[in-house]
Amino acid sequence: MNQVNGNRYQQGKDSLKIADIPGDIWRKYLARYVFKGKYMLNDISRIDFARIGLYPGQNIESYDGYIMNMGVVYDAYSGTQDVGPRSIYLTSVGDELTNLSGVNSEKASTSDLQPKNGVMHALQGLTSFSFNSDFGAVVNDNVP
Fold first, then answer.
1. Would you say which domain of life the source belongs to (predicted)?
2. What's the CA gap between 136 and 5, in Å, rounded?
3. How many alpha carbons fall within 13 Å on the CB side of residue 96?
4. Closest CA to 55 of 74, 76, 81
5. CA 53 remoteness from chain centre
6. 123 and 105 in contact (C-beta within 8 Å)?
7. In terms of DSSP bridges, do strands 120-123 and 86-92 run parallel, antiparallel, or are they unpaired?
């Protein structure tokens, strides 16, 4: 919302609250983070951004058809490679199926939370909602 309202301020428009944004816009962008099926940490392929040809993660289609790459990074511990904590990374691929640089990636801070209807992986400090997409422009175009 800070990014959306910063852009609106520069255009001389009033700031918005979450409730001011229509539900269909929220649904479109939130659906990028929802996947059919059940993916536990151990079910997700490994990704290594330095060795992407060897460990590419796995492309996955979100609930509304947006393509993401999901992969588990094996961190180092006490200088020993691949034996530390494991983290899930979600990378926006969209229409560009080779975009696995890790630039538009978000790290899960908690994984394998199991409510009654699936599995939840909580993203850590989401830096840009919907992965630097057109969310702000869509809001700006549809909310006066």
1. Bacteria
2. 9
3. 8
4. 74
5. 21
6. no
7. unpaired
